[in-house]
Amino acid sequence: MEKITLPKGTKDIGDPEIFIWYHVENIVRKEAAHFHYIELRTPLFEQTELFARGVGEETDIVQKEMYTFLDKGGRSVTLRPEGTAPVMRSYLEQSFHIHNPRMKYFYMGPMFRYERPQAGRMRQFHQFGFEAIGFQSPAADAEIILLADRIYKKIGLKNIRLEINSLGCKKCKPQYLEALKNFLRNQAAQFCRNCSNRIETNPLRVLDCKNASCQNILHSESFPIIQNFLCDDCLTHQNHVIGILESAQIHPVINPYLVRGLDYYIKTTFEMKTEELGAQNAIGGGGRYDNLSDALGVKGIPGVGFAAGMERIILLLQKQSESKAFFQKPFIYLSPLDQQGEDVLLRLSIVLDENSIPFHLDFSDKSLKYHFKNAQRMDASFIIIAGENEYQTKTYTLKNMLSGEQKVVSQTTLIGDLLEAYQNVKNT
Ligand code: HAM
Known about the structure:
By secondary structure, this protein is an alpha+beta fold.
């Protein structure tokens, strides 16, 4: 029979990598609590219309990458490719814009995009994200970027570049788009087919093209820079965001080509990048999306947010630090020699649990040599051996894995000794 394997572009996450995930997830939850962004868990699938209207019909996500299917009731549903449109859908559906318009959300979980898989690009991947809805102030953009920066630093990531841009607003964006189209039309024949098709329909997408010769044309001197077209309001907004970040010792680089792959952005867009992951260099990104609510049927609800790719963060962390540092090891390895030993150690495990001492209980059908090796592999500090003899004498054999010292201890003194040793290890 043919072996059943993982679907392409997905992966199992388990021992030992899962410990790095716990490290990242714990920091995200802690920072969310400090900044008082409250978790929202939206469904893994939504009505297809949400993403078509929210993310934009012209985007790669909607045109090529969605997992869309008809359910048994004939409704078109889509596995969520991102989290912002679902959060806004939930906010509007629950009428927060009427009752409690200023909301701060965070989320963490799987997203789905039918992309060509490679390192750091998956079909099922995970994001954590933050959304501040109902805030017009540029300080909200700055808070979101600051929060992202704090999280990356606390995770332990280094050498991250923050790029920022503004896409203008309803007032100034049309003039920019006209100038951009003129620039692109003048060189239409030299662009790849994809780009030339987009010149009239969605010229900003051309800036995202990965094709080297398209990028060469775009990086010519006559390329219109959006900063020269921003209205006073957008320019003040951008300067304000950058000013706050600078005062917090965060130094963004303005990248006028940073348009991002989703159509809901206006004003601020930003991305966090690394040089260490090859082509998949964005480890997070976001921006302001004051038009998203309009696309979903309610006018003028401002919002700003960001999302980070967890697989890419983990890959980078594995490159930049010693993965072993994140492993959660058992302090004690419990090794029964026979059935009576199992009985003794199972009861001991309850006491260890009550004293919050982490342990690993193995079972007796292996040799002592195997258990020593296993305890070593798990990096346990102590091994406790028990069999018929220990059962009769109400003792345990305790071995310090580091010093090799082995002694027999009575059941009454063991927990006190272990608690002391565990506190010492925790404090070092
Ligand atoms: P995005 O740039 O499409 O933005 O995705 C955010 C991050 O998710 C990327 O920077 C990348 O790290 C990760 N990512 C995206 N696609 C993949 C993939 N196929 N495999 C692995 N990682 C991936 C958004 O999704 C917006 N919703 C962000 C946002 C929130 N804007 C405002 N609020």
